[in-house]
Amino acid sequence: MRLRLARRILSRRSRFVALEMRTRCERCEVVELTADGPASICSYECTFCEDCARTMDYTCRNCGGELVTRPRRLEQR
Ligand SMILES: [Zn+2]
Ligand SMILES: [Zn+2]
What we know:
Layout: H1 8-11, E1 40-41, E2 47-48, H2 50-55, E3 68-69
One zinc ion (ZN) binds at residues 42, 44, 46, 60, 62-63, 65.
């Protein structure tokens, strides 16, 4: 009789929790920001929509930092 290794291991999904993605612009709090959509972020992870970032001249109003385009998170398989 053979011992069966836990086959559940194979079905276990390896998920890791990464950076929390903010879902709303911190300035207007209206625009929904999706993980795969455009957004601007500063080094402290203040997150703004594109319109607000442009209005603020790409300077974070919270910390004065530079706003850059947030890398989009694409669906991973
Ligand atoms: Zn906004
Ligand atoms: Zn900031």
